Amino acid sequence: MNTYTNISYMISHIFLMLFFYLFAGHRFSRRKTIIICLSSFLLITTTDNLKLNLFPNSGLCYVIVTLFQIFVTQFTGIFISKTRDSKVLFMGLSASNYVIVGSIAFSILHIYTDNIFLSLIGSFIVHLVILLFLYFRIRSIWLKCYEREYMDSWWELCLIPVFFYCGFCFLAFFPNTLYEHPENILATVIFVITMFVSYVVVLRYVISESSRAGTYWKNVLFESYIKGLESQYYLVEQAEQNLKILRHDMRHYSNMINSLLAQKEYDEIRKITEHINDVADDNKITRYCENMIINSIMSEIMEKARTLDIDIQPDLRIPKELPVNDYEFASVVNNLLENALICVSDLVNKEKYVRAKIHCSQEYLLVQVKNEYEKEIIFDPYTGLPRSRKGENHGLGMQSVSAFSNKIGGNIGCYCENGTFNIVIFAKF
To answer: Which domains does the chain have, with CATH numbers?
Structure first.
């Protein structure tokens, strides 16, 4: 019996690693990810063999091995994932619930059929059907939320799979198995159904919250875009008015220059021409880059910087056509520069400056923003990004920056050096 039980465990662990492979955003190559998952599978399978063959009746051994396997599976999910946060933990815990349902199916089928081969086949089919359902109906939604969501509630949501996992263990496996207490089968099945319903509710909640937060940031970006256009329109209108005045005065300037030429007053002529050039320069519309959306955002940012008396020096090399989504990229630029302005505006008796280097081409993307700071910057230990001081409902801007970096396969880094905060995003296409 131990041999067949071990085969059942192996089936569950195979599907467990398949789950991780399909639902985790990979930080490594496909080959390396497969090797890591295979290594974890072998390690977990080895501990099952030891448990079943050396300590088949030890409850303590069951608990220790189970805890170890949970640690290995969660570590595997976190290790292969390109993000290491509460979303990954939720995914890993959910994966454990997925495979334990398959193990329960094996036990129930074996109790009712008393046919070990039919039970193994049934367990395999249950694992496969659930995985195929998740792959075709849930995976795309999950990966979208995985890369772009802005929620702060994943730590709380992790309690759901933990609750169900503990419930399954006590109902079906420990301290007594379903073989010893078949009357628990109905409660276990109801528990499984309840779990699936709960996950449907969680998924709808995640989609709703992600959509809400995404809409919020789109509105923020659109507002900045409109303000940028308004700022540009105002500058154009003002420039046109000043040029009308200049054209009106040119006749007088021409007469003055002719009169001064007759008198050979060349110094005065030079002053008049310098004045005309200064007026023309003052009314020149600044074009920060080729991309219209980014240019509008920069116009608004530069206007805010002038209002706050902040020296901002942008180094922009951004083409008209971008290799990434224009609006998502504009949102990142807006978030980083807005945060920098807010940070610098609090400075007292220090130079208020922001340096922004943003280069983009078809081959790579580089965003680097640095500024001085006064208040201590607290970094999130899991993401490495600055954490908002305003509470859990804030800080969505940095989450959206991180989500954008993950989506384009980039690396993001934050560090403080000599009183200067630096954030860098780099991606190679």
So the answer is: 2-219 (no CATH), 287-429 (3.30.565.10)
Burial class (CB in 10 A: 0-12, 13-18, 19+), 135: middle
Question: Which of 382, 369, 375 is CA-nearest to residue 415?
Answer: 369
Most confident of 66-80, 206-220, 265-279: 66-80
Residue 217: HSE in the Cβ half-sphere, 13 Å Cα cutoff:
28
Instruction: Show Cβ contacts of residue 398 under 8 Å, excluding neighbours closer than 6 positions.
Output: 335, 339, 383, 385, 386, 388
pLDDT in tens, 246-299: 666 666 667 677 777 777 777 777 777 776 666 655 555 577 888 877 887 888
Q: Are 184 and 119 in contact (CB under 8 A)?
A: no
Question: What is the chain's alpha carbon radius of gyration, rounded to the nearest angstrom?
Answer: 31
Does this model's pTM top 0.85?
no
In sequence order, what DSSP letters do the residues of 390-408 get, joined into one string?
S-TT--HHHHHHHHHHHHT
Report the amino acid identity of residue 123.
S
**Residue 309 backbone class (left: φ over 0; alpha: ψ -120 to 50; beta: rest):** left
Residue 226 above 70 pLDDT? no
Question: Residues 352-399: pLDDT tens digits?
Answer: 889 999 999 888 999 999 988 877 777 776 667 777 655 444 455 677
Distance CA 53, CA 2 (A): 7
Q: In what order do the strands lie in the sheet with 364-372?
A: 311-317, 353-360, 364-372, 420-428, 411-417
Give how far the C-alpha of residue 244 lies from the chain's centroid of Cα atoms, to the nearest Å.
50
SS3 429: coil
Q: Is 115 left (phi over 0), alpha (psi -120 to 50) or beta?
A: beta
